[in-house]
């Protein structure tokens, strides 16, 4: 009912008059309540069929808890999508230090190009990948032990469940002619792996023979070979040099040496052409970026982004829709406050490619969020709900500082930022002085007594500030909904997309920006 929330604000003054109703309205329009998301389990089951994936690797051994959770969940989904599409190449946009890229390469044998605009991040990714490779064999061994333990625990419960699932999958008819043709008609349940069957039928006899041989190997030997192939194929600067004392090459005849060398080169070339590589690259990605200029061996691939910042998330989707080589995309955005808006401060930003809005529907309405709303969208309601409260004192410092800057210096707008000055300050006076220096304002005209007068003047209003920020937190999911649905609607407007949706990937307490925009191209595109 349109009148349900009509009494939240005063009709004349437009002021908030019913906080309880305001909170209910915010919850009603949140993404979790609108019913537009596709459950992660559904998309994995539809893409994977009855081929269940499990790694056993615990990423928290080489990442912090938050990053471990994100990489573990997203990498498994990316591998599932890549297998469904029959592709081995992945492009990680805004790859940072390569957490996701290196794990996709090593654990899932994918050929990954990690592109980041920061050369520092790229160099850090190289070094981190080198260290990770050094310990990867130990991680694999522990992973095998974890898998065995998990299988033993589930051994008593699995038979009946697996049998019923297999029967359900085998009984479901597949219609290859109609699958993945129209976004309006296709649901995630239609994404059963018919494409995988077509790809399998077109495999060469050589690949089929290799697959049959691989099936006869035990899990133990197969994992060992994967580790060895990783050691052989990673770039030279990512591989620790090791020697084999078991083989005395000096005793071999020259002919046998040559034969072994040739066989080794062929094996490496064969493996290199398929997967197991990670290349960190430095480049600034825009909507007009030609990936073939950056990646010389660009082939059918999928594009991923784990917390792509600001406009980069929007540009990732634009590149996906424009490039025929990119068959799928999985993008988790962040930093909404850094989005460029078409209908905000147009005179300051003459570009014609904007981060928001993307879809034609909101463009036609001239929709604008504004920086304050986008800043609010970055807040984490779920964390506050479990007791991780907002930093009220630092927000109070920042608010009083702004009053000082406006009244004493007459400055209402600046391109400079205070940054994390609060954590480096022991008092309000020190905070103000450090901030003024960062803003390149003369602090000599401001005595300590004046600084403290401002502090005392507004100290009693700290509770008001806390209440105001709590209202912003409650509203945050609604603004995030608008931005995410804008991106989804943009994909729905494209003719070459078979299916697109929003998927909640992460635990929002661990990772507040937890929603992924996922899309698959039509088979002919």
Automatic annotation (TrEMBL):
Domain of life: Eukaryota
Residue span(s) of domain Methyltransferase: 66-342
Region (Disordered) location: 148-167
Ranges annotated as biased composition (Basic and acidic residues): 150-167
Pfam families recorded: Methyltransf_32 (PF13679)
Protein name per Swiss-Prot or TrEMBL: MET25 protein
Record organism: Ciconia maguari
